[in-house]
Design a protein that fits this description.
single chain; mainly alpha; Cytochrome Bc1 Complex, Chain D, domain 2; 2 domains; two-stranded antiparallel ribbon; 4 strands; globular; binds heme C
């Protein structure tokens, strides 16, 4: 069970597959064994924890911060990589993401940020916590492996182009701040109760209650780990998302 101790010695991308099969730990079943992880419960977790940053057609998510996961695994499938291999890769990514890419672009938060474990009996439960981090990660990996890069039966994620075009609204309507908040992946990094968002890479917007001016400033220019969205959204759209954040947090 002391997967972290073991894992710490094994950093580096080439060690991921090995590390993952060791980290799965307690039993004889390796991660690459199909049947590990429950894809059904992984689906809901994915939408909540990962979809804010990743496109995945089956889940209907449109996050743009990280790579499109359908695209990422399309080639793997074409190359004949099995589902269990893809599952191991996803599991490895959750455990050992590139948190600070050398390019300076935002990275992917680590497992303790994305899937914090609930601390039983404590009052300050981490937001959006899970009962068992390893199990949650297994479930998500099983789900992603079962759907990524496959044609979906449902409606395709149409608004998934990185051009950041306005989410389809009736002609003449002003931009929909709530839809933009979801589309831009703000919730992957920020908590905002009204949006069901529990990200904790950046400050909780419920707590910081930013002014409209501050939201516009940050979204337009970015700061630190927060990217600028000026290339993805028009000034009108940025104002709309600012209005949405401010009205959702009871601010001015
Ligand atoms: C805050 C945004 C964010 C969240 C939330 C997030 N990711 Fe990522 N993800 C990224 C970024 C940025 C990258 C690219 C950098 C890297 O490789 O680590 C990435 C890369 C990946 C990759 C590698 C894709 C490739 O092309 O190789 C996978 C797989 C992945 N993420 C899965 C997940 C899963 C599963 C979750 C939920 C547990 C998740 N991500 C949550 C931002 C995020
Ligand atoms: C990749 C993670 C990430 C994403 C995506 C992101 N933010 Fe941020 N955001 C941060 C971080 C980190 C900070 C703190 C920056 C600092 O002060 O150094 C921040 C700061 C802010 C602040 C200032 C909060 C305060 O009180 O200081 C606002 C407002 C904000 N973000 C809104 C948004 C909105 C709206 C979106 C979506 C359009 C968004 N963010 C997307 C990471 C992110």
């Amino acid at each position: 069970m002391d997967k972290r101790g073991l894992a710490r010695g094994l950093v580096g991308a080439s060690a991921i597959l090995l590390a993952v099969s060791i980290a799965s730990g307690c039993g004889t079943v390796g991660l690459s064994e199909a049947g590990d992880g429950n894809a059904a419960s992984g689906e809901a977790l994915f939408a909540q924890k990962c979809g804010t940053c990743h496109v995945l057609a089956d889940a209907g998510t449109k996050g743009q911060i990280g790579p499109n996961l359908d695209d990422a695994f399309l080639q793997s499938r074409a190359d004949g990589l099995g589902e269990s291999t893809i599952q191991s890769v996803v599991r490895g990514q959750i455990e050992y993401p590139v948190k600070e890419p050398s390019t300076g672009t935002p990275g992917m938060p680590g497992p303790d940020t994305l899937l914090p474990e609930c601390a039983e009996g404590r009052e300050d439960e981490p937001r959006g916590c899970v009962a068992d981090q390893n199990e949650a990660a297994e479930d998500i990996a099983a789900y992603v492996a079962s759907v990524a890069g496959k044609p979906t039966a449902g409606t395709p994620a149409s608004g998934a182009d990185p051009g950041g075009s306005t989410p389809e609204a009736g002609a003449g309507d002003s931009p929909d701040g709530e839809a933009i908040f979801a589309d831009a992946g703000c919730g992957g990094c920020h908590a905002l109760e009204a949006a069901g968002a529990s990200g904790n890479v950046g400050p909780s917007l419920d707590e910081s209650k930013p002014t409209k001016e501050l939201v516009i400033e940050r979204v337009t220019k970015g700061m630190g780990a927060m990217p600028s969205f000026a290339d993805s959204y028009t000034p009108e759209e940025i104002v709309a998302v600012a209005d949405y954040v401010v009205s959702s947090t009871g601010g001015r």
